[in-house]
Amino acid sequence: MKDFFRLLKRYASPYTGYMAWSILLNILSAVFNIFSFTLIIPILQILFGLDTTVYEFMAWDSGVPVKDLVINNMYYYVTWAIATWGASRTLLLLGLFMMLMTALKTSCYFGSSAIMVPIRTGIVRDIRTQVYNKLLSLPMGFFSQQKKGDIIARMSGDVNEIEYSITSSLDMLIKNPILIFFYFTTLIVTSWQLTLFTIAVVPLMAWGMSAIGKKLKRKSLEAQEKWSETMSQLDETLGGLRVIKAFIAEDKMKERFANTANEYKTASSRVSTRQASAHPVSEFLGTCMIMIVLWFGGTLILSDSSPIDAPTFIFYMVILYSVLNPLKDFSKAGYNIPKGLASMERIDKIMNAVNDIKEPAQPAELKGFENEIHIKGVSFSYEEGREVLTDIDLTIPKGKMVALVGQSGSGKSTLVDLIPRYYDVCSGSITIDGTDIREVRIKDLRSLIGNVNQEAILFNDTIFNNIAFGVEGATMEQVIAAAKIANAHDFIMEKEEGYMTNIGDRGSKLSGGQRQRISIARAILKNPPVLILDEATSALDTESEKLVQEALDRLTGSRTTIAIAHRLSTIKNADEICVMHEGRIVERGKHEELLELNGYYKKLNDMQAL
Predict the structure, then answer these.
(1) 467 φ/ψ angles, rounded to the nearest 5 degrees
(2) DSSP class of residue 431?
(3) Distance from C-alpha of 317 to C-alpha of 518, rounded to nearest angstrom
(4) What's the pLDDT tens digit per position in 362-386?
């Protein structure tokens, strides 16, 4: 339970006001419930004529014990009512009063449950929002080690499990202690002998329920992991549907998914079976307890010196039966909470993930870009002992275009990812105008840099919102101007809804060239002084490449540009071309100079010429 209370401390503190109201309403509900049950005794006395005592009114300050005083005066008023109005009318009045008490009790009960709804939904919203915000703050390296489907499963299935298991138990944990306290107090006041005997029997029920919930957390953790595997399979299938169909691999994928689904079914069945056994076990143990107390109480009543009479014993049994429900709910929380804690454990793996990209405690000011980007002695590795970049030295002057070429896996994309600090260098430094990028705010650094990638990353939104993405307060005129420079305006206007056209998931309603031009328009609108082009035309046909290249030429004309290219024709006019091989810069110079070296670049050029 320590983990549960730590969880409440983390997420329930903003809702203490709601909890206070819930506690008050639950107290009122318990009090009204006890009052309504108390009326059972005089009703039974009237029905069966069991009490022939003549009662006299006692003053409230007469010094008689409170319990005896209340019982005496209540019976006095009942006998007075019978003498005045008759037994039938008195019985009717007692029944109406009992109905009123029950109405008040149920109203408070409903209010206490309704007021917990904002707490439950609020905690779940807070957890989901915090996980999402944490995901946005984590470095790119975190996602290279995680399955996307697993992250989605934690955001959906695990958070839903917390809502079902933990926040729904929160209502029980506020309500039930109050009910148990008031009911047990009433039992003690009614007959301490019977209550003492009852308390001796209760541990039997608690032991039975703890035996069921003991292994539930581990089983729930296994089930949630299988659910993550199922979601990962679905994500991979949706992402690779074209390849699956091209290689006629539908049957293989069906079998693979069926195996994963069967493993999840087996794991969840074990959890559900253990969970389903809890109710009948608690019902059986509760009945056993009632019967044992009934036998003991009946023995007391049948004896010559019974401490309570038959109507009072019936009232006692009604209250005892009422206390069983909150005890069962406690046991239900006892096996629900471990399921939720297993899900919280998986969510905390995201929440506790370490972000290696640290903001400086006292950031240096970075007003803009005036002179150069200097990469000095930079080495980098994703995994310890395996360097991807080794001793890179490169200067990128303002207004110049520097191109990176080389075979796949030579480290080109990794090098440009270090400039906006998607990763931090392992050794060496990267400076902008002499200031190390690790000493400035990440937001200030990335505001200077625009990206156009090989695969245009667009969102399921309108064309306008995709172009204006990340630019606060962009107007339609500015978006249209950017689209015209990017050669995108004409095809946008051919759409029925123009700039308000929704482009579908990842821009699926557009062609590859159209997606890339939207991506360029987005970079134009941001208007960054430094531009990174990561093979921006390599996936396009000749006509689309021509239109995109024209847009890129307009975009790069007045900017510092770092271009990664496989098609050497797109970077022939670069101010400097760096040839990378196995994480090192092995050649550098202009196009003609590199051809004269007759080295790596010449080989690349000859292969493309062929």
Answers:
(1) -70, -40
(2) E
(3) 75
(4) 888 887 888 889 999 999 988 776 8
**560: closest CA among 433, 469, 437, 444?**
433
527 neighbors 474 (Cβ within 8 angstroms): no
- Length of the chain in terms of residues written: 610
Note whether 327 and 205 are within 8 A (CB).
Answer: yes
101: CB partners within 8 A, 6+ apart = 32, 33, 35, 36, 39
| Cβ-proximal residues to 307 (8 Å cutoff; 6+ apart), any chain | 191, 193, 300
Q: What is the spatial distance between Cα 10 and Cα 346, in angstroms, rounded to a whole number? A: 16
- Sheet hosting strand 435-436, strand order edge to edge: 389-397, 372-380, 427-432, 435-436
* pLDDT score of 211 more than 60: no
The Cβ of residue 607 has, within 10 Å, a number of other Cβ atoms equal to 9
Q: What distances in angstroms separate CA 225 from CA 228, 354, 502, 543, one per listed residue?
A: 5, 22, 35, 47
> Nearest to residue 44, comparing CAs of 321, 309, 322, 323?
309
- Dihedral sign, CA of 23, 24, 29, 34? positive
Rounded Cα–Cα distance for residues 558 and 279 (Å)? 73
Statement: residue 349 has pLDDT above 60:
yes
Question: Of 487, 414, 536, 468, whose CA–CA distance to 141 is shortest?
Answer: 414
Range list of β-strands (E), 243-366 = none
SS3 assignment, position 106: helix
Residue with tokens 């003690």: 188
Query: To the nearest whole number, what is the mean pLDDT of the chain?
Result: 79
3-state secondary structure of 511: coil
Q: Are 548 and 520 in contact (CB under 8 A)?
A: yes
Q: What is the 3 state secondary structure string of 59-81?
A: CCCCCCCHHHHHHHHHHHHHHHH
Residue 127 burial class via C-beta count within 10 angstroms: exposed 0-12, middle 13-18, buried 19 and up: buried
* Tokens standing for residue 235: 């994500």
Per-residue pLDDT band for 500 (boundaries 50, 70, 90) equals very high
The closest of 286, 282, 311 to 297, measured between CA atoms, is: 311
Residue type, 31: V
Identity (one letter) of the amino acid at 443?
Answer: K
Say how far apart CA 341 and CA 359 lie, in whole Å: 32
- Render pLDDT for 478-493 as a digit per residue (tens, 0 to 9): 999 888 888 888 888 9
- pLDDT given at position 393: 92
31-58: average pLDDT: 68
| Domains detected in the chain | 2-351 (1.20.1560.10), 372-609 (3.40.50.300)
Q: For residues 381 and 391, give the distance between their C-alpha atoms in angstroms, rounded to a whole number.
A: 12
* CB-based contact 201:289 (threshold 8 Å): yes
pLDDT band, residue 282 (cuts 50/70/90): low
CA–CA distance, 46 with 78 (Å, rounded to integer): 9
| Range among 139-153, 194-208, 434-448 rated most confident | 434-448
CB 369 within 8 A of CB 433: yes
Which pLDDT score, from 0 to 100, does residue 429 have?
A: 92
Q: Crossing angle of helices 192-213/278-302, nearest 10°?
A: 160
